[in-house]
Recover the amino acids of this structure.
């Protein structure tokens, strides 16, 4: 929850504070069904992005970098990390809404204006659909992976998680009198 509070603070500063986005539009009910990436500069949160997953694509959204950390390449690093995470999860199609003024940024990171891209407006900014088609990561997750790998925390599939470490305790035996360890 501490990291989520940091994400909320970052997005509040950028979208509500700088861009005048109303609270109800910025915090749209999708935050607890998404993955959030957060970037720190020193000990301070400097940027974040939300990723939501759909059947055939992942959607990158709510990219925010604090004003004092802009022009340091953090936004690009966050997008690159998001792309890598999605590829590891097996996604080949990534979708985003680019503010029209930021289309060059997305294009520099491999995204292209979608064929037949729709242009639309929300929260007082104009947007266009962009998409990146990529290859799956060579070690993308699959059902053939070890079950312990699949229960590790999101994005931390390369190191043992707390549930994996609990396996050393073994499973208790059930008797008619109850559970025995």
């Amino acid at each position: 929850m501490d990291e989520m509070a940091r994400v909320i603070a970052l997005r509040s500063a950028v979208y509500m504070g700088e861009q005048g986005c109303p609270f109800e539009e910025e915090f749209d009910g999708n935050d607890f069904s998404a993955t959030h990436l957060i970037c720190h500069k020193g000990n301070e949160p400097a940027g974040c992005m939300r990723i939501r997953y759909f059947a055939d694509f992942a959607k990158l959204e709510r990219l925010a970098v604090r004003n004092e950390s802009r022009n340091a390449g953090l936004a690009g690093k966050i997008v690159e990390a998001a792309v890598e995470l999605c590829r590891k999860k097996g996604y080949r199609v990534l979708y985003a809404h680019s503010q029209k003024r930021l289309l060059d940024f997305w294009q520099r990171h491999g995204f292209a204006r979608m064929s037949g891209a729709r242009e639309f407006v929300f929260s007082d900014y104009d947007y266009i659909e962009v998409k990146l088609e990529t290859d799956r990561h060579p070690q993308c997750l699959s059902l053939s992976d070890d079950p312990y790998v699949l229960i590790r925390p999101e994005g931390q599939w390369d190191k043992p998680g707390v549930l994996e470490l609990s396996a050393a305790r073994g499973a208790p035996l059930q008797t008619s009198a109850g559970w025995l360890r």
Notes: Residues 2-140 form a domain with the Aminopeptidase fold (CATH 3.40.630.30).
